[in-house]
Design a protein that fits this description.
This protein is of the alpha+beta class. It has a single domain, classed as BirA Bifunctional Protein, domain 2, CATH 3.30.930.
């Protein structure tokens, strides 16, 4: 009988033949890329400037492993943005289920729960590295992304959330990007609106999807298929239009029927007023349709946009419960920049 190694080699040769890989030895799998010469240099410049900006503000760098136990990434919650179906999984020689790093925040939560129990708070961390996600072939998305980010652990006040926004603005300014917009949402407002509606599962995810993309027609159609009361339906229909400055709060309060929603609005208004002293205050706006972030967000949700990028160049938010799922109660807020997209945007502006 042939031994296991011989069988494996034969199967591998068959796989090579079946996929005609003799003609594709020099190609890369879809969703990944090489960075050569000037492009690599530009990525390093972006990395250096962002990390230096964060470190000057007291953030200390950490380096996390490229892979670890799969269960760490299962803590990221449910929904369209869950990592469960996007994580590259594999077995080690001992039969343990491992996964390539799909999310830095989940890893930092694991570190915080295991190693930061008796450390002085707050803790300011920054990082740089790749995340790997099994995006669909047809989506045209990268499966390997270079992220640079920061996390502020152990602080749950408005000042911590304001600091996160300031970090984003100052990081992008350090790159020479000036046409910036930072959107601030709060998942609590949305959660308060549907608290009594009993909405869950696919309906909830579809609702978030339509609101986040401001697809009013689709949202209206979906709401006709639900049992939501007329006031709740009206409030949800208004969400895509509730974006701007302090002027949106009176209208938003008219639709807030729960303490959860009112608390979210009070938090956002206090943040916006505190940020008015920033030199780039005019680049910040509230957007209550920001409802579709990672499943672990519990408070503010952040997205940053730069003219010419074509999409958000980074995202983040507050996740006060994630570390608790791993055994330590530690509030936190964080954000990650997309290095590849930042480099492409900078190249476009220079051309």
């Amino acid at each position: 009988m042939r031994n296991g190694s011989s069988v494996a080699k034969s199967l591998y040769r068959m796989l090579l033949s079946s996929h005609n890989l003799e003609n594709s030895k020099l190609r890369l799998p879809s969703g990944v890329k090489d960075l050569l010469f000037e492009e690599a240099q530009e990525c390093r410049k972006v990395e250096s400037r962002l990390l230096q900006t964060l470190m000057r503000k007291g953030y200390r760098e950490i380096i996390t492993p490229t892979f670890e136990y799969h269960e760490v990434f299962l803590q990221t919650g449910e929904g369209r943005n869950t990592l469960e179906d996007k994580t590259y999984r594999f077995l080690d020689r001992d039969g343990n289920l491992l996964a390539l790093r799909a999310d830095f925040t989940a890893q930092i939560a694991r570190i915080a729960a295991s190693r930061f129990v008796n450390i002085d708070l707050p803790i300011r961390l920054c990082y740089s590295g790749r995340v790997f996600r099994a995006e669909p072939h047809h989506a045209g998305r990268s499966r390997e992304k270079w992220q640079i980010g920061f996390e502020l652990l152990g602080a749950s006040d408005i000042a911590a959330d304001v600091e996160a926004v300031n970090n984003i603005l100052e990081g992008l300014e350090a790159l020479g990007l000036h046409e910036i917009r930072v959107a601030i949402g709060h998942i609590g407002y949305f959660n308060g609106l549907i608290a009594e509606a009993g909405c869950a599962g696919e309906t909830l995810q579809q609702l978030k999807y339509l609101i986040a993309r401001k697809e009013t027609a689709g949202l209206r159609q979906l709401l006709t298929e639900t049992q939501f009361t007329p006031p709740v339906q009206e409030a949800l229909l208004q969400l895509p239009a509730l974006h701007g400055g302090l002027e949106i709060f009176p209208l938003a309060r008219r639709f807030a029927r729960s303490a959860i929603s009112h608390e979210a609005l009070a938090h956002l208004e206090a943040m916006l007023r505190a940020l008015q002293t920033h030199l780039q205050a005019g680049k910040i706006f509230v957007d209550l349709s920001e409802v579709e972030g990672m499943g672990y967000y519990t408070g503010i949700m952040l997205r940053a946009f730069v003219a010419g990028a074509g999409q958000e160049i980074g995202s983040g938010g507050r996740y006060d419960d994630l570390i608790a799922r791993l055994g330590a109660h530690l509030p936190a807020v964080g954000f990650s920049f997309d290095v590849d997209l930042l480099v492409r945007t900078l190249e476009g502006l220079a051309s």
